[in-house]
Amino acid sequence: MKKFLLLLLASSVITAQAQRRQPHNQEGIDASVLQAKTLAYTEVEKRILVVLGDLDQNHRHGNMNVPVEDGRLLRLLTETTNAKNVVEIGTSNGYSGLWFLMALQKTGGHLTTFEIDRNRADQALANFKRAGVEKDVTLVFGNAHENVAELKLDRGIDILFLDADKDGYIDYLEKLIPKLRPGGLVIAHNMNTRQAHLPFVEAITKNPKLETLFLHMDGAGVSVSMKKR
Ligand SMILES: C[S@@+](CC[C@H](N)C(=O)[O-])C[C@H]1O[C@@H](n2cnc3c(N)ncnc32)[C@H](O)[C@@H]1O
């Protein structure tokens, strides 16, 4: 009898350990159902998504655009924080800008975006027009390291997005963080371990005034830092 009880106890310990190792959804859903796309809810969203889809499918080459999932993240962060004033460094042909602009249609805000390359800047202007959002965006052509000093704002920046020269992030951060409102976000792209620039990583992780998370690190990598109140 004693032997039987010991055996029973041993087998239930083994079963409990095995159960703990099981993933929750072992018999659950197929991972492909988690790959949900953005569904257009309004006519405005539909119009912008048409242009985003075209840029994603046909015009990525040479434009270094953010991946779709990162664009969706930018839109979510902008809309959920009710951001009115978004500043982007590195417009390219306007792909990430259009994700911001989709959110700004809802918040009633404005995007100011900086680009040094004339050809990409012209493509961006055409794409903003095509999506019908040109009145909600100001494109500043030229070297953003110089031009951000001229940024005229009647209120603090809600979201600063860095996606230009990686070793320049630290300079953009130092120049623009005083203009970021308390509770505002600095979002930086290409923050994976291969591409991130160490002085910038240290600046956003070692400053007690900032709370920083790293997201989508299996892809290009995005850092999101909140300026504390
Ligand atoms: C990675 S791409 C931006 C992609 C864009 N955010 C998107 O996802 O569609 C970087 C852009 O920054 C621009 N750039 C690089 N250095 C710059 C500078 N000093 N001032 C302004 N733009 C700059 C480049 O010409 C390039 O178009």
Q: What small-molecule ligands were found?
A: S-adenosylmethionine
For the record, the CATH architecture stands as 3-Layer(aba) Sandwich
Measured by DSSP, the beta-strand proportion falls in 15-25%
The poorly predicted ranges are 4-9
Q: Give me the CATH superfamily.
A: Vaccinia Virus protein VP39
- The percent range for helix content is 40-55%
Rg:
23 Å
**Tally of contiguous helical segments:** 8
**Assigned CATH class:** Alpha Beta
The fold-level CATH name is Rossmann fold
| Major sheet summary line | 7 strands, mixed
The SS-based structural class is: alpha/beta
Distance between the termini: 66 Å
SSE order in H/E notation? HHHEHEHEHEHEHEE
Number of domains: 1
How many strands appear in the DSSP assignment? 7
Shape: globular
The side-by-side strand order for the widest beta sheet comes to: 3-2-1-4-5-7-6
The mean pLDDT is: 91
What does the model show?
- The chain is built from 8 helices and 7 strands, in the order αααβαβαβαβαβαββ.
- With 229 residues, the chain is of the alpha/beta class.
- The chain has a single domain (39-227), classed as Vaccinia Virus protein VP39 (Rossmann fold), CATH 3.40.50.150.
- The protein has a 7-stranded mixed sheet with strand order 3-2-1-4-5-7-6, sandwiched between helices.
- Strand 6 and strand 7 (222-227) form a beta hairpin.
- It is globular, with a radius of gyration of 23 Å.
- The site of S-adenosylmethionine has 19 residues, from helix 4, strand 2 and helix 6.
